[in-house]
């Protein structure tokens, strides 16, 4: 099993290049990109024999917070008279796991993931990856690049009132 894990990790640079093509941005700090595409199971298996690599979970928490902030800011700037209920509903739709999963599949992020063969790549895994990518963009390239990604790749998928 570890040989497969090692082979997958050795291809991580190709996966990062593919991710950069998908999101239209080159990471200034590639370690964040690697972390964004690494599942917890993969990192646990890899770390049994090698130096520690980090998984996407903490980045996903950061990415989720940034996503909520950018969505709220965008909606408020677009429609200053938006009600709390309208803001909540639209934000809820944009940040749902189902919506992030669909966006992730359309972007092709599944091809970029580092995961074990026993893992199921489900709705939550793809949604978590999108959130982790947002966190990675923020830490690597800053808030402007992050806002641009959210606007171009996430908010543009939904008809914002």
For this structure, the CATH topology is Ribonuclease iii, N-terminal Endonuclease Domain, Chain A
The CA-CA distance between the termini, in Å, is 49 Å
Structural class: mainly alpha
Give the tally of structural domains. 1
Describe the structure.
It is a single chain. The model has no long low-confidence stretch (mean pLDDT 87). This protein has a single domain, classed as Orthogonal Bundle (Ribonuclease iii, N-terminal Endonuclease Domain, Chain A). The chain is mainly alpha-helical. The protein is 70% helix and 0% strand. Helix 5 packs across helix 9 and helix 7 packs across helix 8. The protein contains nine helices and no strands. It starts with a helix and ends in a 7-residue tail after the last helix.
Main traits of this protein?
161 residues, mainly alpha, Ribonuclease iii, N-terminal Endonuclease Domain, Chain A
SSE blueprint:
Blueprint lengths: L1 H9 L1 H12 L6 H8 L2 H8 L9 H22 L5 H11 L2 H11 L15 H19 L1 H12 L7
Helix pairs in contact: 2-3, 3-8, 5-6, 5-8, 5-9, 7-8, 8-9
Summarize the structure.
It is built from 9 helices and no strands. By secondary structure, the chain is mainly α.
């Amino acid at each position: 099993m570890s040989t497969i894990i090692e082979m997958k990790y050795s291809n991580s640079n190709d996966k990062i290049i593919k991710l950069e093509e998908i999101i239209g941005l080159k990471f200034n700090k590639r370690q964040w990109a690697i972390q964004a595409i690494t599942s917890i199971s993969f990192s646990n298996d890899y770390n049994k024999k090698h130096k520690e690599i980090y998984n996407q979970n903490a980045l996903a928490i950061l990415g989720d917070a940034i996503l909520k902030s950018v969505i709220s800011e965008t909606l408020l700037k677009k429609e200053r008279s938006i009600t709390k209920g309208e803001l909540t509903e639209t934000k809820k739709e944009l940040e749902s796991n189902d919506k992030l999963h669909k966006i992730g599949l359309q972007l092709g992020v599944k091809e970029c993931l580092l995961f074990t063969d026993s893992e199921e790549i489900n709705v939550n895994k793809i949604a978590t990856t999108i959130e982790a990518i947002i966190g990675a963009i923020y830490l690597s390239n800053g808030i402007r690049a992050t806002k641009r990604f959210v606007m171009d790749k996430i908010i543009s998928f939904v008809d914002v009132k």
